[in-house]
Amino acid sequence: MKYIRNVTLKAFAILVVLDLLFAAVPLDALGRVSAYNHIFPGRWRLPWSEAPAKAYSLSLNNLEAMFASHEVSAPPAPDEFRVFILGDSSVWGFLLPKEDTLAARINAANWTTPDGRRVRAYNLGYPTISLTKDLLLLDEALRFAPDLVVWFVTLDSFPADKQLFTPLVQRNPEPVRRLIETHALNLDPSDPAFVAPSLWQTTLVGQRRAVADLFRLQLYGVLWSATGVDQDIPATYTPLTVDYEADTSYYGYTPETFTVQTLAFDVLAAGVEQAGDAPVLIVNEPIFISDGQNSELRYNLLYPRWAYDAYRRMLTDTAAEEGWSLLDLWDAVPPEKFTNTAIHYNVTGVMDVVNLIEPVVIEISR
Amino acid sequence: MTFIQLAIFTAANLIAGMLTRTRLRVWILMTASLVLIYWLQPASPVRHLDFWLPTATLGLVLVVYGITRPVPRRFERSDLPAALTVAITVSLIAGMRYLSPICCLTPTPPPVFVQVLVGLLIWAALVALAYFTAGRKAASAAAAVLIVLAFLFLKNETLGAWASAVLRSFTGQNTALAKPGDLAWLGYSYVAFRLLHVILDYRAGRLGQEFALDEFITYAIFFPAYAAGPIDRVQRFSADLRRAERLDPPRFTDGMTRLLVGVFKKFALADTLALMALSPLNAGQLQSSGWAWVVVYAYALRIYFDFAGYTDIAIGLGLLAGVRLPENFNRPYRQPNLTVFWNNWHITLTQWFRGYFFNPLTRSLRSSKRKVSVPVIIFVTQLATMGLIGLWHGISWNFLAWGLWHGLGLFVHNRWREWAGPRLALETRPAAVQKALTFFGWALTFNFVALGWLWFALPAPEQSVSVFKLLFGF
Fold first, then answer.
1. Does B345 share its domain with B224?
2. How many helices (H) and strands (E) does chain B have?
């Protein structure tokens, strides 16, 4: 019994010491260690999945790991004009194979700039809607030296009180707080939405899920390399609705209370400023425009007409005031090309957008 | 198996291992096994089946015990506590239905009391019948046939779906929803092998000494080995049970080490490899030959670590309880040829088939009146044995193909050894040549086995063929 007791106590003591030692190592540092772009080819889009076992990918909140697994981390070709495309799930390519996303279609189109550089687009979209999330990703991406940032936005990414709803933002409080401070953003750095880990949560046991996610991301590299699959695309999906209730509400705003102050234009401005020498093209992304029941009140399930029209006016005016490059593609994709939501469109819709942004990108690259 | 289950298993075995009173130790192991086979049984869409399947297992065990009693038959008074324990345990598990705060040990609530009572009466009648027919060859043959028949229903999709539909009609459920997977009878394969071994040894007069009821039940459903083996022999198992050795530090260390090694193999290595291993889903998505090889190798390693891990856990738990279960794996992927591989892969299964099928079939062919050449005998026996081993995993074309793949491999290796042995005299060659040949033999064997898993892992043989083509660039 004494022997058994001693073995058990020693094993427990070793476990406690190892656990506490691990707390001293920031998990971000571990995220930089990656087999992608070395053993495995870099991913074409940031890792995200609701069905990891079928997508050979998973959602995680470790920005270092996310970027280390992306092809943007690989050394660039010498003749490359690097275009970073930011945005939500429509840019990421929900329900689209990796070859059919905006970035992939731009690359397949083989654009060249007037000075002969090859345009190389990188898909940095991520499936949640928040300008602050985009700003966070842009901040992380800038060390990979973009020549141009194309930032797809839509009304739902603007409401100021929705900026911190995204788990990626909540789980990365330090860089977000730094951005808030640097750009004096109208966001609360001590917002309770930010996740502040306790000492226990920084130990190996407390972070076991996050550590396991880092390992799983690396392990999925094998099947990503073997299959090229990074999303579980169902054979069928529920198409978006075209008929709506006679409801004109938008997050409790009225036409009177829906002002520039209620939208996070400061975050957009921060992104343009943060990009520094890299020009930023802001694109108001295409939305589904319904002609169904109550379509005179709503464009789609997301947006009542009054709110969206007001948003477009504010965006156009602010861009003009600030001198931003703005491309308004809100009605560029015909309704039949949308898939399951008001912002997701199929590959022919993607091609419509690609064709429309080509001259603008080429012009900016001069 | 979850970590909580594993912790409970470990505790139960430690308690049993610390006892020197043999009868009490056996009783604890039997009772723990009785409880745990209900707890481990997965849920079934067929109503109450997760209660009836473990109950049927117990019924089958008792029937075989009754049939294989020595003649003149008699009921040993010493068996009474064990019989009562079984009846009380099953009744308590069934009665948990009425104790809502702690309901239930089974994944879904057990049937109502009347149904349980009727079931137990039928069960008792069968056991009584078995006792009274002990010694009759027909009774033991009927039991063996029954065991094999049940196996066919579990392993064949069409029969399984049909059986599920029949059971659903009894429970008033929609028969159109019947699926083969409804009959997930945990541990049946291994219990069947143990019971068939007892019946066959009994019929051959090789069973030897008598076994007490609690020993026999513990042997048949010993919970560490219930779901994934190994397949022990009752004579050896009961000898361990009767040995009154208290758990000492060396045995504790051996048992815990084995247990932890098994946990590492299963939960760290196998589950990790599963994230990159070949599967029916990714087989059709593979694009390049090089990565396809990686995925196939990952599957080969995953299946080994998964199975060997479970075996290590079972052996470790057994050691804690004072039962030294037989080894199932001995570095199979490091063996220089296919014959040695099969001597070291799922050892207890191959020994079972060797003892009860391969050897009798070989003897029968050798002693047949029609002269059959040795190569033909080897060809027939190897293919038949490996084909059966394949079908044991599931009665479908892919498992048959896997079995035949190995049967052919074993035949070819046997013929090669016969032909090359005297001609090449490999043992007289320089050491470097022998080493190189050993390495070549290992590489060939490992790749042959790894490629064989293509049949095993993918339910459609045509899918396996397409992966073969990708691997070899066709």
1. no
2. 21, 0
* CA distance linking residue A239 with residue A30, whole number of Å: 41
Sorted by sequence, the CB contacts under 8 Å of residue A59 that are 6+ apart come out as A47, A48, A49, A50
CB of A339 within 8 A of CB of A237? yes
Give the pLDDT band (50/70/90) at residue B136.
Answer: confident
Of B303, B223, B306, B313, nearest to B261 by C-alpha is: B313
Query: Could you say which of B214, B242, B270 is where a domain stops?
Result: B242
Tokens describing residue B403: 């079995």
Do B220 and B335 fall into the same domain?
Answer: no
Run of H or E residues at B261 = helix B249-263
Domain that holds residue B134: 21-242
Position B320 in a domain: no
CA-to-CA distance for B474 and B462, rounded, in angstroms? 14
pTM reported for the whole predicted model: 0.91
pLDDT digits (tens, 9 = 90+) for B437-467: 999 999 999 999 999 999 999 999 999 999 9
Report angle CA B364, B368, B372 to the nearest 5 degrees: 100
Give the C-alpha separation, A121 to A91, whole Å: 12
Name all domains of chain A by residue range, CATH numbers in brackets: 2-364 (3.40.50.1110)
Final residue of a structural domain among B242, B272, B298: B242
Between helix B359-366 and helix B374-393 the angle, nearest 10°, is 150
Which chain B residues are Cβ-neighbours of A3 within 8 angstroms? 249, 252
Same structural domain, B93 and B205: yes
Tens digits of per-residue pLDDT, B263-310? 999 999 999 999 999 999 999 999 999 999 999 999 999 999 999 999
Q: Render pLDDT for B96-124 as a digit per residue (tens, 0 to 9).
A: 988 877 788 999 999 998 999 999 899 88
Number of domains in chain B: 2
* A223 closest CB neighbour out of B252, B272, B282: B282
- Give residues 262 to 281 of B whose Cβ lies within 8 Å of A: 272, 275-276, 281
Q: Does A54 touch chain B (CB under 8 A)?
A: yes
Q: Does B272 reside within a domain?
A: no
Closest CA to B408 of B374, B384, B389: B384
Residue A149 to residue A274: CA distance in whole angstroms: 11
Bin B31: left if φ > 0, else alpha if -120 < ψ < 50, else beta: alpha
